Amino acid sequence: MNTVVPYADPLYRDYRPIVNVAEDEVLVLDDQVGFHPSMAPIQKMYQDGNVAILHGVGYENSPRSHFRSMDIWHTCEPDSLGTEGWLARVIRDIDPNKENVVTAVSMGPSLFRALVGPGVPVATVENINSYGMLTGLTPEEKLNRVLSRYRRIYSPAIGSGPVMDFLGQTGLDALKGADILSAAPANYTSDIEYANSSIADKLKGIAQIHLAGLGSRIFYCDHSGFDTHADQVNTHARLWTEVSTAIRDFFDDLEAHDAADNVVMFLYSEFGRRVYDNGAGTDHGAGGVCLAIGKGVKGGQYGEYPSTRAADLDQGDLVPAMDFRSVYTTLVEDWMGLDAVPVVGGNFEKPEFILN
User: Fold this and answer.
1) Residue-number span of the structural domain to which 35 is assigned
2) d(CA 92, CA 59)
3) Is 231 contained in some domain?
4) Are 221 and 203 in contact (CB under 8 A)?
5) pLDDT one-digit tens code per residue, 2-16
6) What is the Cα 263 distance to its own chain's centre?
């Protein structure tokens, strides 16, 4: 509610007397809603028709747990504990024979669960400029000797068999990926000066790999800190400044290289926030908002802003009306050109936010 602000709704400030966005600061989108004032770069992209706002996204019976909710978003399994990421299924569809170990790139210190699946290689990159440990070990036989030694060291502790075979293959795929990706920074030049933030660093790394033409199709990264139970007014403004500026720099970079047409960026959080503020911030909620950004996006607003009437709230939360798997279905079918049913686990009515 403080990202896409229902500024014309009198209940908004009744619910959030402390943690609100002043009406004269809202970046107006229409006569009902507007963006947080730190989102000016994204507002400009919205005005250009390149941002889709997806209202009230979520799922039924939100547990309000970071860990469980992230599991659900990552695996598309709201009723059971999923074991395979939804994007891992996409990667397998795109590259069933594992011909390219950098089809997917996870930007950050650890692999995101959405990308995890048996036999699915993913390059996990914390810093593209220093990525490439052991890439000097060639040929492949030498790499295999190193990994065999790794397996022997750890198998007494956790056992041998399929798990260690999987880890060994994952390690080999990672080393191959490091070798491939190590060329990306050296071949990259740009007049765009990215802002100084962790999200800007990640998006710059993604731009470098994308522009290197290595066949990478899926990139995943995050920007933490939005769990604003306290000091939300200041923290939320700083975070959206970082994210908005980094996104603008990223797309400006791609545009300058004539490489923006085939990129869609999807932004989400694992849940929304409570309607009522707690005096300093807002706590875990349910229905949230997602954004899709890019020249391939049909800009506008999709779905209805969830009702803020007290009678329509669920335990103080906005009620989601758009299943997150509907949004995934649009991305999988209309953007990636794949069958979404086995990816998301069923048929879901999709919002049409991708240009034909």
Assistant:
1) 4-131+182-344
2) 26
3) yes
4) yes
5) 999 999 999 999 999
6) 13
Residue 71: CATH number of its domain: 3.40.720
Would 170 be classed as within a structural domain?
no
What pLDDT was estimated at residue 109?
83
Q: Is residue 161 part of a domain?
A: no
Which of 36-40, 153-157, 279-283, 314-318 is the least confident region? 153-157
In a domain, 177, yes or no: no
- In angstroms, the CA 254 to CA 50 distance is 14
Q: Is the pLDDT of residue 33 over 50?
A: yes
**Residues 6+ positions from 64 with CB-CB distance below 8 Å:** 271, 283, 284, 285, 286
- Of 322, 353, 338, nearest to 89 by C-alpha is 338
Domain count, the chain: 1
User: Is residue 33 a contact partner of residue 7, using CB atoms and an 8 Å limit?
Assistant: yes
